[in-house]
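Quick one, T. Sequence first:
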Amino acid sequence: MARMMKAAIFVEPGRIVLDDKPMPEVGPLDALIKVTTTTICGTDVHILKGEYPVARGLTIGHEPVGIIHQLGSAVSGYQEGQRVIAGAITPSGWSSACQCGVSSQDGAGTPHGFKLMGGWKFGNTIDGCQAEYVLVPDAMANLAPVPDGLSDEQVLMCPDIMSTGFSGAERAGIRIGDTVAVFAQGPIGLCATAGAKLSGATTIIGVDRLAQRLTVSSQMGADHVIDASRLDPVDEIMRLTSGRGVDVAIEALGTQATFEACLKVLRPGGTLSSLGVYSTDLQIPLGAFAAGLGDHKIITSLCPGGSERMRRLMSVIESGRVDLSAMVTHRFKLDDIEQAYELFGHQRDGVLKVAITP
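Structure tokens:
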């Protein structure tokens, strides 16, 4: 009879509950991880609200820090008992998409090797990380050992929000001396702000409506912060740039208003880097789009995953170049995860990220 474990399970829109389910069976290429810390993501809230469909009974969550409990028979290079993380995106490593450098769109098993968002499996197409144990597929492509000097909370941002936020800066091709605007300073936007600074931007403008987030934005590297509840951010950014506009605008919320604002503040030939998860169709305003003649680029990104990506992100933390400790504002036990969802889903009490421990 299978051993049981606790897990946060999607029941129906509006309900994620903690319940028992069988521990996973470990296949040859898998690793079973005992989860020591995980968290809740804005995408999990989209799932909870029914805005992103997943199967009923699925374990939610995609940000694991833990200890290897059991290794598949074909897995080498790791040891049971080793501290590891895995990315929110767990590519196979061998599909056509992976070999083309877009492993987030991993299509392992499809005839052509591409699948839209196919690398996002945890809490989407397979059981996720808000549980006592999680099964990591293609373990050799996805497990990254945690350096001894780093705590769980220090690396908790690496699997998703740090990787996603940094990718917004990286894929925009930020250059030394660039001016960058980041719309929304939630966890993803704050990481995009930190990533823009690391990439060489010398003027970074953070936009949000919450004073506490703007304070953290300055800590992450924003040179100017704009309270969008008091000022029109488009007007203010054009004033700060003397009418030139920004080289890169990063959208980190997923709304029509922020997407439009990003396009409106771009200089001719600038890049809009979109990280938000949108719930409705987008419209492109004709004037800001220069009728299609402005040499603009619009780039989208899904969180890069894989073991080498995780190693690089942890090396950024270990070096002290970026300190994301201000991100974890609340802590809960797994037994109290329903309360954590209530707090995080309603964005109460200044929450940025919650740490969930056994």
